[in-house]
Specification:
The protein is mostly helical and 65 residues long. It has one domain. It contains 2 helices and 2 strands; from the N terminus they run βαβα. The longest helix has 15 residues. The chain is globular, with a radius of gyration of 12 Å. The model has no long low-confidence stretch (mean pLDDT 83).
């Protein structure tokens, strides 16, 4: 899971952990500047290094309420 700030990641992580406490090993967080191609490439490379492959990605923008 990536976001543009640590604060946004923290909010999302807390919600996911509350709903799916056993999911911690199935995701990781990373701050990514989606307007910067090098930042996105780095995120993809780190994802592949951690999980072995990247099956897909979804660009979902929004605000947690």
């Amino acid at each position: 899971m990536c976001a543009t700030s640590v604060d946004n990641l923290s909010k999302a992580t807390k919600e996911i952990d509350a709903e799916l406490p056993d999911a911690k090993d199935r995701y990781w967080t990373c701050v990514v500047d989606i307007a910067n191609l090098d930042s996105v490439r780095s995120w993809i490379e780190e994802t592949v290094a951690k999980f072995g492959k990247l099956d897909g990605a979804a660009n979902v923008a929004g605000e947690l309420n």
